[in-house]
Amino acid sequence: MATESASADSFPFQQEVVWTPDPEVVANSNLQQFMDAHGIASLDALHTQAANDVGWFWEAVLDDLGIEFYTPYDEIVDLERAPQFPEWCVGGSMNIVHNLLDRWQDTPRATQDALRWEGEDGSTRTYTYAELYAATNRCANMLRERGLGKGDAIGLYMPMTPETVIAFLAIAKIGGIICPLFSGYGPGAIITRLQGARAKALFTADGFHRRDKLIRMKETADEALQECPSVEHVIVTQHAGRSDTPMHSERDVFWSDVVPSQSDEARTERTAAEDPVMLIYTSGTTGAPKGAVHTHCGFPLKGAQDMYHCMDLKPGETMYWMSDMGWMMGPWLVFGTLTIGATMVLYDGAPDYPGPDRLWQLVEDHSVTHLGISPTLIRALKTHGPEPVNKHDLSGLRAVGSTGSPWDPESWMWCFETVLNSEKPILNYSGGTEISGGILCGNFLQPLKPCAFSGPAPGMDADVVDATGDPVQGEVGELVIRKPWIGMTRSFWDGEERYLNAYWRRFEDIWVHGDFAAIDDDGLWYILGRSDDTINVAGKRLGPAEVEALVNAHPDIAESAAVGIPHEVKGQAVIVFAVPQQSDTADESLRAALMERIIDALGKPLKPEAIQFCTALPKTRNAKVMRRVIRAAYLDKPLGDTSSLEDPATVRAIENAW
Predict the structure, then answer these.
(1) Which residue among 97, 311, 427, 572 is the one 20 to 30 A from 400 at the CA level?
(2) Can you tell me whether residue 589 is helix, strand or coil?
(3) What Enzyme Commission number(s) appear in the record (predicted)?
(4) Measuring CA to CA, how many Å separate 97 from each of 175, 301, 381, 432?
(5) Could you tell me which CATH number the domain at 102-258 has?
(6) What's residue 311's pLDDT?
(7) Parts of the chain with a pLDDT under 70
(8) 208 and 159 in contact (C-beta within 8 Å)?
(9) How far is CA 330 from CA 87, 286, 336, 510, in A?
């Protein structure tokens, strides 16, 4: 790369096409058949028509997904308060659980697997659609027995077990509001969310095992609940099999004592299409977490559409997306697979335990067709070489999905060649909790280059703009959305002004997402990290991903993070934190080699102030590097909200970097 092309005012990756879709796969894809049914000649034409007639597009999507309403809507969208506050499916009544479970019961789908679960110890459980329906009904009856119902917020602080999905569905079935919480949260994060939601009940567990170590969840929940007087009921699953679980007799009950005895039949509450179904908090990588409000006709349908149209998930196929129910990809997995009539896989364990082939064993054993990972995970797994992958039959895998952080070309190619045999696509997926899924996504219709997105998901009128809001191509700019979509958050919980400030106040009537993006000359898209992570070196804007891709390409480096720190002359300077593959390789010669690599690609003006080695990087549970925490730890500043931090010890790794 030339020096000029490295700045955030130009395009960073120059790659060749490495994957071209098979014409037969294209013809049989859900998206192509959708376009054929509507007489649309190309994907570009679909994007244009969807942008020009938002109502037509989303009505066509609901029809394509077979969504059923109790009372038909009068109007697909009311844009009177648009684009910030559109109302969808106006006058319609529906409950998403009817579309996830109820409608399948008198069809052949009832005997198909809806959920397959595996624990870290190798134990497994499977639920058909009929069995999941009955289990959800029993849980819903238990909730109603305790006086819980429509509009009540109920927390979900659980490991990834079948009971988590059952409780999730039961809350929606009674018309409640699901409040998913990351299973690794400490008391402070739980307090913030349960207090904010004014939750009346909480599902939790005695604990779970990770790398054969017991994690005690109930004690953490109890500590938080001392500050959450609105929570009157706590339902505890005995997942870890503990005999010493602390219980409060006036408030707590074991799942096994109150759910199995309930009736297998329960009515599904008739809710308005725009009634809230979920309050889910962002991961907080850029500050205090924000509570996104989602409705029955919003998040679930956007998530299902992304799976169906972009990822081409078909009824009967199997998706495993590594996540926690507290991050949006957990609810996304449940809503999407069950809407389509597919099968979800849950795994409660570490992806490299007891050996580095555990993830690939899961793919083989559960006949996974669509696997969702993060670039961060691939960077970790590729250190073990191809042998763990080659031990398993992955021929049934149709695609790998990817979200969480930007790719570097080397790791992308390793996954493409080693996992997918250079024959199947990596479906990059980027959006967020407030989006209900993707702004950009790969698909089965367009060629791919390393690290690239095919483009916007259908229905997302996305663009890349410069600092004045003008569209740019071949340059790095801000990712924006010009038209509303059905999955957009209905504002923030108790925070309308914060919602408007976060997304709508930079450019008039345009959603600014906060990501750097670029479109290359062939029309392929790239995400280059958070724009609020931008490093401004003497007036030259630099995206962290540009530096990190260079560092990560070195064979002795597992992963890295680049941050900007104050500099008296330049305004900001670059500091790189690199995690070596082996600590004994982290010497001055490696530091010099990395520095030379960066200077060669980016030029001396963008030379890092320092390259430091560390044992780990602070990340969220969904594998996003928390650069603001890295920056604060390095500068010895307050860390801010760290509730989404997966491992607090990683902060010390930055403080102890050498």
Answers:
(1) 97
(2) helix
(3) 6.2.1.1
(4) 10, 12, 37, 23
(5) 3.40.50.980
(6) 98
(7) 1-14, 283-288, 532, 534, 538-541, 621-622
(8) yes
(9) 25, 21, 10, 28
For the chain, give the percent of residues with pLDDT over 90: 77
SS3 70: coil
346 within 8 A of 117, measured Cβ to Cβ: yes
SS3 label, residue 258: helix
Can you tell me the distance from the alpha carbon of 634 to that of 636, in angstroms, rounded to the nearest whole number? Answer: 6
Contacts of 244 (CB under 8 A, 6+ apart): none
Helix (H) / strand (E) containing 36 = helix 30-37
d(CA 609, CA 213): 40
Sign of the Cα torsion 146, 149, 155, 157 reads: positive
Strand 201-205 versus strand 153-157 pairing type: parallel
- Distance in angstroms (rounded) separating the CA atoms of residues 335 and 345: 13
Residues in the chain, total? 658
Q: Where are the domains of the chain?
A: 8-66+294-484+510-529, 102-258, 534-655
Cα dihedral angle (368, 374, 378, 379), rounded to 10 degrees?
Answer: 180
Say yes or no: do domains 8-66+294-484+510-529 and 534-655 share a fold: no
CB contact at 8 A, 460 and 439 = yes
- Residue 114, classed as helix, strand or coil, is strand
Q: At 437, is the secondary structure helix, strand, or coil?
A: strand
Q: Identify whether the C-beta of residue 333 lies closer than 8 Å to the C-beta of residue 379.
A: no
Contact 273, 295 (CB under 8 A): yes
Q: Which of 91, 67, 59, 86 is nearest to 459 (CA)?
A: 59
The pLDDT value recorded for residue 538 is 67
CB contact at 8 A, 238 and 245:
yes
51, 556, 578 from 1: Cα distances, Å: 35, 22, 21
- Determine the Cα–Cα distance for residues 179 and 292; give it in Å rounded to an integer: 10
pLDDT of residue 585: 83
SS3 call for 6 = helix
End-to-end CA distance of the chain: 29
CA-wise closest residue to 564 among 551, 579, 552, 547: 547
| Superfamily of chain region 8-66+294-484+510-529 | ANL, N-terminal domain (3.40.50.12780)
